[in-house]
Structures are given as structure tokens and as C-alpha cells.
Design goal:
Number of domains: 1
Radius of gyration: 18 Å
Shape: globular
Oligomer: single chain
Distance between the termini: 26 Å
Number of helices: 6
Order of helices and strands: HHHHHH
Strand content: under 5%
Structural class: mainly alpha
């Protein structure tokens, strides 16, 4: 994972408390899990309803649907915040925040079309927007 100073100066327009930044960063790193779960549950809903543990054995498809909806909502939130932070760079930004890919790798392997300063400005803007959308 790339290194980014956890806490900016409070004078920075995208300032977040250090632990809020870490909370949001770890939230985003769950994206691959949400995506995997979302698609695995889609298959399970279509094929098999048996073996699902829970307090209401009569509604396994409903429970799976609720979990899928929560995964989709979380994934869409991260994606929309990336798009809002930078309509031009959102795909690279999504890869960075959900997989921990550092700028150097985005620059060398993925050919991100911007410099380091612009990238980190978008990166910080993303977490600022995500913080606002997620609330307290």
C-alpha cells in the first residue's frame, strides 16, 4: 500500500481527523469483499436457498437480497464519490482507494494521465466527499 500522510494540516481544504481518514480508508478497502459477496449471493439466490443460517428460516432469499442491496449501496457510494472527486481520474482513483494501489504503480503500469500533485489533490478530495456522504 502506498504511503500518504494520515493527517493534513487543519488549514487544508480537505482536512479530516487522522482516525476518520483511517476509518474511511479501511471502509474502501472492503470494496473487493462487497463485490465478491454481491456476485456470490446472486448465484446462491438463483441456485440454492438451503443452508443459510439465521433467525428466520422462512425467508432466506429476502435475507440474501438485503445483504446484496447493502453491498451494492456501499459499492455505489465509493464509485460515486470517486466520480465526484474527479470525473477524469475516477477509474484510477477507484483502484487506488479500493485496492491500495500507490500512485507510482498507477503512473507506471496504469498510465494515469496526471501528475502526483493533481492525483493527491483528487485522492484527498475523494475522502473528504466520502466523509460528508457517510456522515458521523
Amino acid at each position: 500500500m502506498g504511503y500518504l500522510k494520515a493527517e493534513l494540516s487543519e488549514k487544508n481544504k480537505y482536512w479530516l481527523p487522522k482516525h476518520r481518514y483511517y476509518e474511511l480508508k479501511h471502509y474502501c478497502l472492503q470494496y473487493p469483499h462487497w463485490k465478491d459477496l454481491y456476485f456470490r449471493l446472486e448465484f446462491k439466490m438463483e441456485v440454492n436457498h438451503d443452508g443459510i443460517k439465521g433467525s428466520d428460516p422462512g425467508k432466506p432469499t429476502e435475507r440474501l437480497g438485503v445483504i446484496r442491496a447493502e453491498c451494492k449501496k456501499a459499492m455505489e457510494l465509493v464509485e460515486k464519490c470517486c466520480q465526484e472527486a474527479s470525473p477524469e481520474l475516477w477509474r484510477w482513483l477507484l483502484k487506488a482507494v479500493t485496492q491500495g494501489v500507490p500512485f507510482v504503480q498507477l503512473q507506471c503500469k496504469d498510465e494515469i494521465p496526471c501528475g502526483k500533485d493533481m492525483y493527491y489533490d483528487c485522492y484527498r478530495r475523494f475522502f473528504y466527499i466520502l466523509s460528508q456522504r457517510r456522515g458521523i
